[in-house]
Write a structure and sequence with these properties.
By secondary structure, this protein is mostly helical. It has a single domain (about 5-115), classed as lambda repressor-like DNA-binding domains (434 Repressor (Amino-terminal Domain), Orthogonal Bundle). It has helices at about 5-20, 25-30, 35-40, 50-60, 65-70, 75-95, 100-115. The protein starts with a helix and ends with a helix.
């Protein structure tokens, strides 16, 4: 697998896990994997198979597409990781909003984009 894709998947896993407030041990237990295997995935040392991706998506409340969505072009890997973590935290916050507040939040985000 292309190294860039492998690193993108690794960053998505790490960012989503942190956004949910899970440790690697928590994620390992919930996906029936070892903490070492989660660590290797998050460092891009190994590539997850489809069963592992499905288990991760389920626990992290992601779609499989999220693991492969194209990453924006950032100057540094640090900037890319920071952006992913912020996006994941935003997703988690949006999931907790009641419907009437969610529609307000979406309108506010749209207004920010139109500035």
């Amino acid at each position: 697998m292309d190294r860039g894709v492998k690193l993108h998947i690794a960053e998505q896993i790490r960012a989503a896990r942190r956004a949910k407030g899970l440790t690697q041990e928590d994620l390992a237990m919930r996906t029936d994997r070892t903490p070492e295997s989660i660590s290797n995935l998050e460092r891009g040392k190994t590539t997850p198979n489809l069963d592992t991706l499905i288990a991760l998506a389920d626990v992290l409340e992601l779609s499989l597409y999220d693991f492969f969505a194209p990453a924006r072009d950032f100057k540094t890997a640090h900037d890319r990781r920071a952006r992913l973590e912020i996006e994941m935290k935003g997703r988690e916050l949006l999931k907790t909003l009641p419907d009437e507040h969610l529609s307000i939040a979406i309108r506010q985000l749209a207004a920010l984009l139109n500035e």
